[in-house]
Batch of 2 targets.
Target 1
Amino acid sequence: MSTVFEELKERGLIAQCTNEEKVKDLLDNHQTTFYIGFDATADSLHVGHFLQLVVMSRLQKAGHHPIALIGGGTTMIGDPTGKTDMRKMLTLEQINYNAECFRKQMRRLVDFNDGKATMVNNADWILKFNYMDFLREVGVHFSVNRMLTAECFKSRLEGKGLSFIEFNYMLLQSYDFLHLYRTMDCHLELGGDDQWSNIINGADLIRRVDGKDDAYGLTFTLLTTSEGKKMGKTEKGAVWLDPEKTSPYEFFQYWRNIADSDVIRVMKMLTFMTLEEIAEYEKLEGADLNKAKEKLAYEITSMVHGKEEADKALEAARAIFAGGASSQNMPSTQLTEADFTDGAISAVDLLVKTGLVPSKGEGRRVIKQGGLTIADQKVTDFAQSYTAADFENGELIIKKGKKTFHKVTI
């Protein structure tokens, strides 16, 4: 049987580690307190966060104590990592609202009952800082020359430049680790591999300020496709954990439609299926791989939205692929009289209204490429329009591409 650390490796989750021998010992032989930070930049967590929560849950099940750090303070600056422009400045009210949304979603995946996990907000200490004291205690330990070599800063400096406010982000995240080390006996920070520079600077700050050499960092593999692109993006934008922003059906379909080359790797990273069970799915080839995709989609949807919603999404997906495209669980949009012009609505406008495309230009592109079917008829004319009479039993079924179905009602 694999140890905790070995299983993380076998699942392809570990990217980098400050001291593999020490971290392995912490995870395999001790009850360890660790933390992962989440900046409250939106009112929902997304698929990228989901990977981090899965790792947090996995380690919790192995007996470790997770700290979920909500970045109420650091969000006021914004992490420059992976961004070509400075993040939009949010108000404290927006940040607090987003943080509350995060709290509700995290509780679906991590057990915070009876002190099994802890949730903290770094606004509780960051917003109380005296700037001069902070510079003297923390800033003095950071070399500007060294910071400029960090990948998160290099890419920005070579592009549109880096603001001074963002330059402070690394110091604040590093201080978070120091604060949790001192107050909660936290010895390990985890994060995506794009956080490597911030994480190692946190461990280094603890060594420099407190003279301790028992703080470590571990990063896990970013969730990317086999082509190296970040997962969790669609034509409509990010894949969110909030069912109001990405419906359970759309969430299910995202995973059901991933590339054949990604399904087993993602199954290892994101589900709690045993490696032995996954190995059986790994034997599937060709059309049989759809069974693995369906299993993956069902497992992840169950984790995020619950078994009932996963069952509905599975039923809807199967009905659609079997030709029963009027499934009651299909994503739907209701039109009003205001959506019609002279009693009709164009195919392009239908695509935009349903959110299947972000713009009319993109809608015309879909039609030009032969990717739109409405009421079982291929749409070839940009001017094609529909009246109430075309809505059979008050509904119209739109099919975009081979796998995206949407019901429109009036």
Target 2
Amino acid sequence: MLSIAQNEKLTRVGQGTPMGELMRRYWQPIAAAGELYERPTKAVRVLGEDLVLYKDRSGTLGLIDRFCPHRRVDLSYGIPEEHGLRCMYHGWMMDETGQCIEQPFEETVHPDGRFKEKVKVAGYPVRELSGLIFAYLGPQPTPLLPHWEPLIAENVACDIAITELPCNWLQCQENSLDPVHTEWLHSYWTRYQQLAAGQTVNVRGESAPHERISFDLFEHGIIKRRVLRGLGEDHDLWKVGHPILFPNILQVGSPQKLTMQFRVPVDDEHTLHISIYIFRAADGAVVPRQDPVPYYYNPLIGEDGRFITDVTFNQDYMAWVTQGPVARRDLEKLGESDKGIIMFRKMLNEQMEIVQDGGDPMNVFRSDLDDALKLPVEPSRGFVNGAPTRYVPQEAGPSVAHADIERVLATYV
């Protein structure tokens, strides 16, 4: 178990906190690019900061303080102009750096005045990659946006799922270091629910019992491995494994269908969970351009007021959220199955110390990103009804607005 103070160190993400300063060294996805096609401004909260993401009429992306420096109104209701975001209240305009560039009445009264030069709000770099908008909230100089191979792969189709979770980010990420839960939460409990509802048992992605687990450090984080009953150490689950990318990314899936999951801290008690699915084309197939990449928001609660739990990811969400806004790690009793979680917590503390000493933590890149950052991928995964199969992540699926993805996916393996 951890002390209360140790738990707070790992979970508090505000400015000036050890974890907050570590997380600010990384590019974090904050929205789907397609959201700005529908409305060019979006209120966002990330790492405890209230910001507005916008696209101006020239196509430039900006991420600045959500509240106008004049009278503190919400700029997510502002007006994107050719080169900035104009406040709808009195017309002041800020550019993507947060610098005030126009003050209409002030400039009429004082044509030679320099008041606007003294007015600046927070402004952060943003970049679009693979249909996601990433933001960097840390100190300068800005590091390079990592080119993880799945995010820059060619001739692929992508689909983005977003879920807003009322719990701390670490509860979500520690799940990735917990292989044993799959046979219980996603198999045994799914069977129980289906039987209790009088349904035919049908467990997709079912896991056989675990017989061995292991975790190996590698240059980008931790490789998770497992031996399931009926499969030996020559199986990809053990021989290859799949990566947890430091500090808050999980990659899982097969070469035909990969998922990258980002657990973005909104604040101490909320997480933006973003999953991007990357579907690789079958031989000879050509993927039509996606502009924008389709996205959807995943609901947590059903019409009955209970968690939706008939899809795999939502079972995880239920488990994370029901631990409370911030899990009481001072009360937990860890066992042998939790050695990956213990390893990850140690890594977090080591990387926080590097930041406190003025260094760059793991996966902060300054150069040499001409090539893709390649990662291990398991060619095959798991059991379904006793037969080896490719694991299929399950979520609610694309909304009607993104039905075009179904046509595209018909060409995939």
